[in-house]
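hey can u check if this looks right to u? its 386 residues, i copy pasted from the old doc so theres a chance i mangled smth
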Amino acid sequence: MSCSNCTSGSEGTPRGCRSNGTCGSDSCNKLTVFDWLENMQLADGQHPCPFVEVRFKNSRKEFFSFPEDLKPQAGALVITKADGGYDLGRVTLAGPLVSMQMKRKKISKDSEKIGSILRLAATQEINLWHELREKEVHLQVEARKLAIALNLEMKISDVEYQADGKKATFYYTADQRVDFRQLIKDMAQAFSVRIEMRQIGLRMEASRLGGIGSCGRELCCSTWLTDFRSVSSGAARYQQLSLNPQKLSGQCGRLKCCLNYELDAYRTEIKKFPKPEIKLHTEKGIGVFQKMDIFKGVLWYTYKNEWMTWHKLSVKDVQTIIEKNKSKTPVSSLEEFAEQTVNSDVRGFDNDLGEDSLTRFDQPKKKTFFKKKRTKKQHNGTKKKV
């Protein structure tokens, strides 16, 4: 993932985002917003929106008001009022779409969450901002050394400098509560800045660090996903997946977010199926549910004490047997309704590309023809003497 604004380094990776999708430019950031009302004029009687949306480091976006003599456009670097100083951010959205975003996030115009923009960023302030960004990696390494020296069970995953250099925010992850009072004292003495510790979740840490998932693509949380919804093991059960934590867990150690993508479709289709605990009563025996294929609409049943023989039934046939059981109509056997399995060479959706063959990448062997040597028997025409 790259863009034209951050260019490429010597190794071919983008300098800004380093293929993580979180660079400072607007072309490959996952929080990029396209203002589709930018070139439209306001109707008569409507006033321009006095708020803009500003993005900072680490997927942080906030809304700010600006003075009347200042009209910041999207992409402009502005100085915002911060705690005990100022901060620098990039305007991502301006105009009528800002009010729509505020309404979607349930932020009123009189909310205390709305900050204020002081002025446009000057050249000296921008240069200082870039210098502080380069120091953050070294600051993170030194902070980790101090935490290890105090035997604290925590991991400092990222550091964010305030644009004026007076404050540094340390993002960390921990399984339990950590007493980092002594750590703050040591870091304030070593770095000569005000320290703020902020705990984040494992999913948020993975979105900042980035990586490649088991699907072969970049992590959804680091490229486009901003809403981290809880994922339960019930999502895997609905989709008939094996409850193997090694396969269902992502790089963050939690259940994969993609388990929720198709969950609604599965929950809609599974309503058409009978409940697994319902047993099919026949004259030959009692049929017990084994498994189902939701999108193919088939189920597999076995007789009690005959667990090795599975019978493939459609949803319609199973519902027919259940209705006959309710009306006490005798059913001879499951074989009467079972579908016949036909061995054919026609490939379906599962193996269109021959993915089930282990030798699909091997080169075909060439046929070799051996010439048979034919020996002619020589008859010398002599007769044996009797």
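Residues 123-149 form the longest helix (27 residues).
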